[in-house]
Amino acid sequence: xxxKVFTVGGTIDKIYSxxxxxxxxxxxxxxxxxxxxxxxxxxxxxxxxxxxxxxxLEMTDEDRELIKRAC
Length: 71
Hints:
Shape: flat
Oligomer: single chain
Structural class: alpha+beta
Order of helices and strands: EHEEHEH
Strand order of the largest sheet: 1-4
Radius of gyration: 14 Å
Mean pLDDT: 75
Strand content: 35-45%
Helix content: 25-40%
Number of helices: 3
């Protein structure tokens, strides 16, 4: 079985800028991909797809529809 993992940004993928303050951030490498490559040994096949790179507080109904369609 192959598991599909969708990422949408959010807290786990954010990189905060200390110089610019807590509300200034960007999205870096997908945390789930980094964990699976370096720290966690998984015994199944998987694929990671980034649907969005967005803070959950900024998600719109269109974003939620995109996630729903992907699932």
